[in-house]
Specification:
Strand content: under 5%
Helix content: over 70%
Shape: globular
Number of strands: 2
Number of domains: 2
Distance between the termini: 58 Å
Strand order of the largest sheet: 1-2
Oligomer: single chain
Structural class: mainly alpha
Largest sheet: 2 strands, parallel
Length: 139
């Protein structure tokens, strides 16, 4: 029974990781929640896969930033919102005919936007290492 549970967690984690990877190029899919779900599944199903995921140069950043409550870099916020809204507007006004579906999709996109904007914005590493008086001069 324990082996079946581990296999389920590993399979579900891998599926979540694949969806997260798709979310990088398809703004309709949220990347971070799927990557976090994969980390959760791997943590309970395979320590080796979990270590591999959190040490990955791209995906590890998502996980560490979330767990350490650091936030999202400004560049990532701008990119995510631009991709989100460009694809949502295309989908809702070009591909979908029903008003109800358009409203639901726009409401979901608005909720995602609010969530992204509420996250702390990470500062550049250079700015974090500057003394406060130099940091004020740069801003």
């Amino acid at each position: 029974m324990k082996t079946i549970g581990r296999m389920f967690l590993i399979t579900f984690g891998t599926l979540s990781l694949l969806l997260g990877m798709l979310g990088i190029v398809l703004p309709i899919l949220p990347t971070t929640p799927f990557i976090l779900l994969a980390a959760y599944c791997y943590l309970r199903g395979s320590k080796r896969l979990y270590q591999k995921l959190i040490s990955h140069k791209t995906f590890g950043i998502y996980i560490k930033s979330y767990y350490e409550k650091k936030g999202i870099p400004l560049k990532t916020k701008v990119y995510a919102l631009a991709m989100l809204w460009s694809s949502i507007l295309f989908i809702t006004f070009i591909l979908i005919d029903r008003l109800v579906l358009r409203v639901v999709i726009l409401l979901v996109a608005s909720g995602v936007t609010i969530h992204i904007l509420r996250q702390k914005t990470l500062r550049l590493e250079k700015e974090q290492s500057l003394p406060k008086n130099q940091l004020a001069e740069r801003i």
